[in-house]
Design brief:
Blueprint: H1 3-6, E1 28-32, H2 36-47, E2 51-55, H3 63-70, E3 75-77, E4 91-94, H4 99-112, E5 116-118, E6 131-135, E7 138-142, H5 149-162, H6 167-184, H7 191-204, H8 207-211, H9 215-222, H10 233-241, H11 247-251
Parallel strand pairs: 1-2, 1-4, 2-3, 4-5
Antiparallel strand pairs: 6-7
Helix pairs in contact: 9-10
EC number: 1.3.1.76
Protein name: precorrin-2 dehydrogenase
Organism: Thyridium curvatum
């Protein structure tokens, strides 16, 4: 292959991390420690619907972790870590002020091939926690690959300020429409058409307009799927006022305009 052809492709930038949305719902996550860092890790895992067990003497629990233990949001083993605590763990998060103990836990995790994160020790981490912006279903993570956590937080805040208002609500609406579409067109061979039509929908309306979609609007949108068309917002609003309006009436200009693809 010539150098001219090679220039068409992205250059490889080594040293990065593979950024994934790791699904840990109903997975067993072991958290060793009960301080401020552990509290943040616990909340992240609970937000992802994980089953969290905290190993820490009661005297080491900060108010937030103690609250979650008291509310039954996490399981609590009230003592220092023991190797048997790793039995059944799908992920291990260590947040204790004892470098030697942390390293020993990390080595045990490596032996058992359990992914682990040792707080503030990048070389002993299979993955990093980034700075996350959350708005409903929208999650944006900024990572500096362990080099500058404080900078990651600043960058995350900057990005969040640039986002449209109610972006999460708009995404929720589109997600509901996508779920409805799968009931209308469930066959696997319709996948490309579904994806193409949803792309059209996402590009056709503003964030504010998508936020205001009602169940009726979504049902009306689905009426245009078979023909792979997308109605204008004006048409969609007209259908609210005239629920029995047929597509023929809309397309033939009976109401002073017609719908384009």
């Amino acid at each position: 292959m010539t150098s001219a052809h090679a220039q068409k492709f992205p250059a490889v930038q080594g040293g990065g991390s593979l950024i994934l949305a790791w699904q840990i719902k109903n997975k067993n996550v072991l958290v060793v420690g009960g301080g401020e860092v552990a509290a943040g890790r616990i909340l992240n895992c609970l937000n992802a619907d994980a089953l969290v067990t905290v190993v820490c003497p009661p005297s080491g629990l900060n108010p937030e972790v103690a609250y979650r233990v008291g509310q039954g949001q996490v399981s609590h083993t009230p003592r220092n870590f023991e190797p048997s605590d790793l039995d059944g763990a799908d992920m291990v998060l260590v947040a204790v002020d004892d470098p030697e103990a942390s390293t020993q836990i990390w080595k045990l995790c490596k032996e058992r091939r359990i992914p682990a994160n040792i707080a503030d020790v990048p070389p002993e981490c299979d993955f990093y926690f980034g700075s996350v912006h959350r708005d409903g279903p929208l999650q944006i993570m900024v990572s500096t690959n362990g080099k500058g956590p404080r900078l990651a937080s600043s960058i995350r805040k900057f990005i969040a300020k640039q986002l449209p208002k109610d972006a999460g609500k708009a995404i929720e609406a589109i997600g509901q429409l996508r779920a409805k579409l799968r009931t209308v067109a469930p066959n696997q061979d319709e996948g490309p058409k579904r994806m193409g039509w949803m792309t059209k929908i996402s590009d056709a309306y503003t964030w504010d307009q998508m936020c205001d979609f009602t169940d009726e609007d979504m049902d009306n949108l689905l009426r245009f799927y078979a023909s792979n068309e997308v109605p204008s917002l004006e048409t969609l609003m007209l259908m609210r006022e005239n629920p029995d309006l047929s597509k023929t009436e809309l397309f033939d200009g009976s109401f002073g305009f017609s719908v384009g693809a």
